Amino acid sequence: MRNIIFFLFAFFCVTKAIAEDGSRLWLRFDKAQNPAKVDVACKSATMDIAAGELSDYWHGGSVALTIDKSLPDDDGFRISSTPEGVTIASATDAGVLYGVYELLRTKGSGVSGDYNAPAFKLRILNHWDNPDGSIERGYAGKSIFRWEEINDKKGTMSQWMRDHLTEYARANASIGINCAVLNNVNASPKMLTTAYINKVKLIADVLRPYGIKVFLSVNFGSPKALGDTKTADPLDVNVGKWWAKKVKVIYRAIPDFGGFLVKANSEGQPGPGDYNRTHAEGANMLAAALKPYNGIVMWRSFVYGNHKGEDRVKQAVSEFKNLDGKFMDNVIVQCKNGPLDFQPREPYAPIFDQMKATPLMPEFQITQEYLGQSRHLVYLAPMWKEFFDFIPKEQLRAMTAIAGVANIGDDTNWCGHHFSQANWYAFGRLAWNPELSSEEIADEWLRLTFCDKKEFLLPMTEVMMSSREACVDYMMPVGLHHIFKADHHYGPEPDGNQPHFPIEWLPIYYHKADATGIGFNRSSTGTNATEQYREPYRSLYDNIETCPEEYLLWFHHVPWTYRLRNGRSIMHELIVHYDMGVSEVERYVVQWQDMRKYVDKQRFEEVSSRLSHQLENAKEWRDVCTKYFQSIEQDALLKQTK
Ligand code: GCU
To answer: Which domain of life is it from (predicted)?
Structure first.
């Protein structure tokens, strides 16, 4: 009996040890048999981490880590081979650390002697995490920032917090992410109380050695909401003084604090508009407070509802265009990649064409709010690359910052779906180098996260690469958009018409399917949103004959009798796409079953179960939308023949 118990116990320990829960992300380097020999030019917390990673995981002989002040001060690095081994040089400690991760990731094939520098200076995660631990649009558990586990009086935090923050920072550093906005853009004023500032300081202390700066989202009404002033009017002297004092307190605690992210006069948030002031007046007041410390303001252009009756996709330009050039030089206007709201496919946001005298930065959404959340395998790099392709090269090169709304929570595997980790990874890699191809990044991530056998890599890279288009096909083909179930944005609701919601949230407002046809006329005969685009896109999108068909129903209201270029009617075309989307997911389910031998049991089964769920949901999209649109089409055609 005792033997059996011992055997069961031993079996339990072994299976536990080899169970793969996904917590190690893409950081699964093989342990070095003997610690690598590492020469470190100077001591610092960051250099210690860099040296530690190499001695633990580098298999290729000795490495010298050097600070070379003649290199550009941009966190870039050079990895070169010398007779003694490998040298990693950078002007900064963080650059050396990035070089170390490059060396480990490429197992030495990155030793090129070329200088490798990031495209964007600030590579930022935006966490939409609330102080109570919930995460807006978070699908991977609760927040990793457990504020109640930080004791600001004693200056301590729980071991769980410290371990997780360290792992989080390491994962970010390994892909070059160097900034984190810790809290939701729908910001609680509480974040600016002394207790929270002191907690933020403790988080900043853990992240700093990994080269990560912290930022906060701030509620524009904070001074008033905290009861310190009577108003939050940006031109009120006391308000300006309040912010200046607050900023001073923050920098005393966190000397390298990054600055503020602000959502103002949008979806019910307070802002300068409450006092008839402009976004520029609001942003500049905060920018003036941050300026002495080199802090910045990231002011979001995601606004709507202030221009009653205007097409929502036009409103950012309507509100910001006249302010072009009026922002202080430490303000960056942060703009979502599309003009609506992180849909599976949107044309690019034309604000990027309309504001040439103001620094802009793109905001991507890594958390898949409208792309199946953490239940669907949807690889987002191709979508982000599509955006980059629309922005003129020069303009992209001039941008200094890029943000991604994080998909990270306290789930064991960080992101809910094992494949959602790829989107965090891809964001970091593209923020470093937007020229990388989506395939390269997928291949890299799969190798690091699962296995490097080509029998696994080829089919799974293909699955990842096609997954975004599949999602567009089963959710919103041919330019349809925003027909999600209200509020939680998961699953279809084409008949959505809740009278208590703002019109800009209603599916029927977007697809406009009726007796005359389907789609939103944003051409010059409609809302004229096309006018906000630069040529050639303006003319291309405006004309139904030249509009790329993937945007057809985004820009045009198409009669049911309209024939697409392939001769199909619009309804027929929609059905073909819905079917294609579903059969792609069917293919993924089968493909994954063939991958069993390359993947550990736990992750294999977890991905299998998510894929089955994705298939069910894709079918729901197809069935619900086809039925709904077809019934309108049939009625319309019947009426026409009468
Ligand atoms: C979307 C999302 C909100 C979020 C908002 C924003 O509308 O559904 O949860 O607050 O974007 O980006 O501010």
So the answer is: Bacteria
